[in-house]
């Protein structure tokens, strides 16, 4: 009979997973057939499988409704349902219900590694790493092959800076899953944090031997070698990273920076232009392209690029300053036009700054008046209280006397004195625009294009 039950459940899973894309209808048909047979007790297990099918269709509400039917079922089914409900609420970031159903699952079956893992996950998200570690270790004591608990325990120990234990568990992880490149990269990252760069590189190379076309993995190895000061070998890995993932902005940044530092701006143009295509809204890369053209002596391409930048980013003063500098170098008649535009842009920015400053002062003054009014109310209430304490007659509340003239208690008002701004001024907000002297445009002799790149 046990073998027959196994065959029925396996057949139901196959039918449910291959029912023309409609998983739920397949399971419903199987449940109906089982309920009409002598294996009625298998229907509950298939109901849980149906709830999992709802999850695959991203129908969380029906999955939760289906699983809640088993809260008062027998222990095994109730524990399985509560475990799935805890996991569902955890995915929806409802930690209160996730904790609730994890506790319910553990109350029903305290030796359920999945429930212990769910409970540890809730503690991990809340930052309680000690409790999270306890639940993960309990799950591993029950099931040493529980990969989810092992992986999360490693992350918990990393957050607790217990790197030696992390290494021990990672070695165990590689025994369980010897082809998992994620484990190799995690081990390499831990070794990097402990400054064991040579061993970290060996783990990255093991991962690369499995996934040779992973551009991000090539870049990580290049970063590690670059941190050791070997830029020539790092360059080869960055080349491979660019070949496999040409849109990786970090790879493009490094390659562009390398060629600018080594005085090959004509080669840096390619990577700056690619980065500008990846992030067209960032003016930095467009300026880098124009700067590389200018540094390599291609002034025609440089001025065309600067004009394009000025057309799409008219408020950028750096671009206008570069246009003025090129116009001076080449003796172009557009110099005066760009100088006037620079003055206009600077004046507009000055006006915007003054308006913002004036608005901030106005808000502070209005806020100060409200606080002063609240202080006045507080002081008047305090004076009334002092008069009451010296035996003065208090006013009678004629709306609610009930035949007895009783004195009312003092009203507690929260002090607003703490809400004063530190630098509040009571001067009148300025609305006039003060004229400032226009400063002469000063340009540096050397190009600061490399400074646009990150360190």
Structure report:
The protein has 20 helices and no strands. The protein has 455 residues and is an all-alpha fold. The protein has a domain at 277-371 and 425-455: Serine Threonine Protein Phosphatase 5, Tetratricopeptide repeat, CATH 1.25.40. Helix 9 packs antiparallel against helix 10 and helix 18 packs antiparallel against helix 19. 29% of the residues are buried. Residues 389-446 have low confidence and may be disordered.
Instruction: Find the CATH topology of the domain at 277-371 and 425-455.
Output: Serine Threonine Protein Phosphatase 5, Tetratricopeptide repeat
SSE pattern, N- to C-terminal: HHHHHHHHHHHHHHHHHHHH
The 3D shape can be described as: elongated
Helix share bin: 55-70%
Count of individual helical segments: 20
- How many DSSP-defined strands? 0
Unreliable spans: 389-446
Main β-sheet description: none
Percentage beta strand: under 5%
Distance between the termini: 69 Å
Rg estimate, integer Å? 35 Å
Q: Which whole number gives the mean pLDDT?
A: 76
Strand and helix layout:
Blueprint: H1 2-17, H2 23-35, H3 42-56, H4 60-68, H5 75-91, H6 95-108, H7 113-125, H8 129-142, H9 147-159, H10 163-176, H11 181-193, H12 197-210, H13 215-227, H14 231-244, H15 249-261, H16 265-278, H17 283-295, H18 299-312, H19 317-330, H20 335-389
Helix pairs in contact: 1-2, 1-3, 2-3, 3-4, 3-5, 4-5, 5-6, 5-7, 6-7, 7-8, 7-9, 8-9, 9-10, 10-11, 11-12, 12-13, 13-14, 14-15, 15-16, 16-17, 17-18, 18-19, 19-20
């Amino acid at each position: 009979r046990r073998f027959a039950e196994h065959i029925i459940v396996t057949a139901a899973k196959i039918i449910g997973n291959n029912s023309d894309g409609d998983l739920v209808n397949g399971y419903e048909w199987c449940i109906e057939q089982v309920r009409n047979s002598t294996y009625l007790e298998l229907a509950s297990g298939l109901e849980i499988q149906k709830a999992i099918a709802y999850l695959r269709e991203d129908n969380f509400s029906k999955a939760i409704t289906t699983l809640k039917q088993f809260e008062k079922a027998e222990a095994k089914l109730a524990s399985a349902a509560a475990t799935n409900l805890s996991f569902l609420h955890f995915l929806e970031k409802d930690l209160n219900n996730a904790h609730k159903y994890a506790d319910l699952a553990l109350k029903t079956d305290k030796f359920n590694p999945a429930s212990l893992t769910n409970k540890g996950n809730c503690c991990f998200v809340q930052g309680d790493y000690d409790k999270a570690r306890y639940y993960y270790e309990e799950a591993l004591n029950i099931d040493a092959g529980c990969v989810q608990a092992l992986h999360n325990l490693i992350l918990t120990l990393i957050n607790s800076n217990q790197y030696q234990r992390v290494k021990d568990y990672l070695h165990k992880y590689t025994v369980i899953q010897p082809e998992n490149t994620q484990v190799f990269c995690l081990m390499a990252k831990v070794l990097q944090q402990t400054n064991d760069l040579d061993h970290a590189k060996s783990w990255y190379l093991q991962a690369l031997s499995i996934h040779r076309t992973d551009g991000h993995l090539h870049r990580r190895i290049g970063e590690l070698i670059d941190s050791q000061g070997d830029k020539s070998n790092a360059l080869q890995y960055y080349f491979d990273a660019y070949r496999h993932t040409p849109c990786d902005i970090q790879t493009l940044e490094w390659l562009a920076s390398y060629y600018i530092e080594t005085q090959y701006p004509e080669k840096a143009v390619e990577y700056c232009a690619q980065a500008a295509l990846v992030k067209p809204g960032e003016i930095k890369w467009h300026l880098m392209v124009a700067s590389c053209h200018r540094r390599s002596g291609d002034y025609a391409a440089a001025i065309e690029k600067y004009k394009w930048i000025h057309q799409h980013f008219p408020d950028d003063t750096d671009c206008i300053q570069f246009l003025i500098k090129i116009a001076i170098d080449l003796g172009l008649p557009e110099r005066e036009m760009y100088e006037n535009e620079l003055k206009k842009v600077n004046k507009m920015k000055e006006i915007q700054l003054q308006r913002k400053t004036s608005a901030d002062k106005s808000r502070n003054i209005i806020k100060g008046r409200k606080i002063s009014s609240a202080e006045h109310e507080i002081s008047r209430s305090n004076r009334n209280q002092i008069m009451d304490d010296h035996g003065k007659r208090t006013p009678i509340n004629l709306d609610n006397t009930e035949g007895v003239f009783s004195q009312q208690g003092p009203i507690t008002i929260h002090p607003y004195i703490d809400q004063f701004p530190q630098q509040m001024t009571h001067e009148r907000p300025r609305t006039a625009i003060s004229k400032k002297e226009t400063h002469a445009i000063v340009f540096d002799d050397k190009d600061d294009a490399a400074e646009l790149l990150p360190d």
